[in-house]
Each structure stands twice: as structure tokens, then as C-alpha cells.
Amino acid sequence: MNFTGERKQPEESKVKKYASITKYMVTELITFRPDQSISEVIQIILEKKISGAPVLNERRELVGIISEKDCLRVLIDEAYHDQHHSKKTVADYMTHEVATVSVNMDILDVANEFLNNHFRRFPVVENGILKGQVSRRDILKAAHDIKITTW
What is the pTM assigned to this prediction? Predict the structure, then answer.
């Protein structure tokens, strides 16, 4: 016997659709500039109790991320390399290669990104322009919002 019948594609209405990350991302962010003083940035990070922030150029394009970990290098540079941080800028310490997610992704796509790496948050971009940020906790809120009957 030969069973070569056509496979039925799932009906459009039965395909699960998940919410866009734009529903859960934060859009009001503290951001820094590459030419900003690293001393000023450390002060803001401490005052605002944040662990880091996106770095944007004058066109609001994402050019890096500066984190607490990046800022710890200031101490190492002073102690071991005799480089005083008063003349150093964000560009001297920021991470230039930034993992991002697109505004077109849904919460399932982003959950997979979080599961496959160590990052706690992703900048959300559209054509290189920062639109917001999404964290693990934001995606957890999205998962909580999904009704149990849809799982």
C-alpha cells in the first residue's frame, strides 16, 4: 500500500500566535553617549540603581552597551596601568558588539534567545535604531499573562 496523500497544513486560526515583544518592552530608558565621561556614567549607574544602559550615537543608533562589569575595568586600569579615569569616556569601556532583538519578534522568539545565552536583557531595535529594551523578567510577565488553557 502506498499512502502518499497530501498533508494538511494547519488552519491559520489554529496556529498559536504570541504577543509581540513591543507589548512588554520598556521604552523609557536611560541611555549614554560614546563621548560621555566614564566618571559621570558610573555616578548615574549608582544613583539610578541600574546595571547598565545602551550607548547611542547622535542618530539614536545603538553603538554599544555600558555595564557595571565594563565600568569595573576603570579600577583595573587605574591600579595596574596607571591610567586615571578622569579623561576616559564611555567609548573606552563599552561593549561594542551588542546582541539585540528585533521589534518584529514575539515573546516566544525572545524567550528562546534568553534560553540560549547568558544575557539578562536585550536592546530592541528596528533598522539599527533603539526602540526599547526587554528583560528576562518582561518575558516572564508575558508568560504569566498567557492563559493556562492556551498552553
Answer: 0.77
